[in-house]
Each structure stands twice: as structure tokens, then as C-alpha cells.
Amino acid sequence: MPASSTTRIVVAALAAFVLSATYYGVVVGTVWHELSGASADAFAPWQPIAQIIRNLVVAYALDYILLRTSAVGVLASLQISFRLWLGFQAMAIIGSVIHEGYPVILYCVHAFDALMTVAVMTICLRANLRKQAT
Fold it and tell me: Which of 31, 33, 75, 116 is spaced 20 to 30 A from 106 at the CA atom?
């Protein structure tokens, strides 16, 4: 994998990590803790590392898909990413609502985080690619 691809993927994964950490820590932290039953004390030191690895895999897959589409530019890439989010991430998460009685509000919290993650990754992957092409 060329260094430029690696750099774009790492930047996308880290940007998504910071955005999600801010979202869960500042924006929806209290609601998320109450609805999920997760305790702030239950934080494990390996979780951020696991999340970054997860983000790297998602960014790699997203980069692969976007590079192989006819999308030119950030807006067209965001349209593809939105469809990927809707068809896969949003539908996978809603399975918990349907089958496990997962609270709808908690679904919304996680689905919105997934949408933000895909959007910021797409912007990082495509904006950096565009700069390299000019």
C-alpha cells in the first residue's frame, strides 16, 4: 500500500476516533451511560486501542470502496458513504432494536455516531486525495 494511502487511512481513523470520543464524552455521555448501563468506571485501558484498530479497518474498507467507484470529489463520495452507512451500519445496529429490545434512543446515539464516523472518514480520505491530485 503506498504511503499516501496509509497516511489517508491513519488520518481518517484518528479523526473519527477524536470525533467519537468527543461525541460520547461530551455530547451524549450521560444519556449513553444511563441507557446502556455502562459505568464510567468500567473503562478498560485497551478499549481506545481496540477502537483505533477498528477505525483503521473501517477506513481501509471505505478507502478501498471509494477508490473503486466513479465518485469524483467529496460530495459524490459522501453520497456513496451515506448509502453504505444506511445499508450496513444503520441496519446492523437496528437489528438490536428489533431482536434484543435495545432502546430506540440508544440506537439513535450509536447510529448517529456511525454516520459521523463515516462522514469524517470520507472527508479525510477524499479531501486528502484531491490535494494530492492537484
Answer: 75
Cα distance between residue 90 and residue 83, in whole Å = 10
Name all contacts of 59-64 with Cβ < 8 Å and 24+ positions apart: 59/8, 59/9, 59/10, 59/12, 59/13, 59/16, 59/121, 59/124, 59/125, 60/9, 62/12, 62/118, 62/121, 62/122, 62/125, 63/5, 63/8, 63/9, 63/12, 63/125
What pLDDT sits at residue 24? 87
Looking only at Cα atoms, what is the longest distance across the chain?
A: 50
Q: Are the C-beta atoms of residues 103 and 35 closer than 8 Å to each other?
A: yes
CA 124 to chain centre: 12
